[in-house]
Target: Response regulator
Amino acid sequence: MPEKRARNILLVEDNSDHAELVNIVLQSINLDHELFRVSNGEKALDFLFQRGDYTDKNLCPRPDVVLLDLRLPKIDGLEVLKYIRESEQLKDIPVVVVTSSAADRDRKQAESHNVHSYVLKPYFEHLSKILTEIGFVSHA
Model:
């Protein structure tokens, strides 16, 4: 039987309070995970493409899922999403958009880039359900 490994989750969130709430939710569902957080779109792309400060693949592994805010400094979340979907090496990573934007335009743009889910903040009660859908959490 293959050894289960911790899931690598990249959280792209500029708000520290929201990031802490995500961490609390992940701990509450007993998900074996490693949470990596970056606070802007530029750092997200550096992490994903393992460049700049994120070249060590042991310290900055490829994420199994990306939790992506849309309203980010430097490069916005929709642009990050576009880069993910256009990259051969990243395009299959599930992306869950977590945002305060209820704008139909933002939702349609995100969906046009094949996001797994588009969830409005406060989204924390839905995070467990989404991770279960992706296959991260099993109900034994």
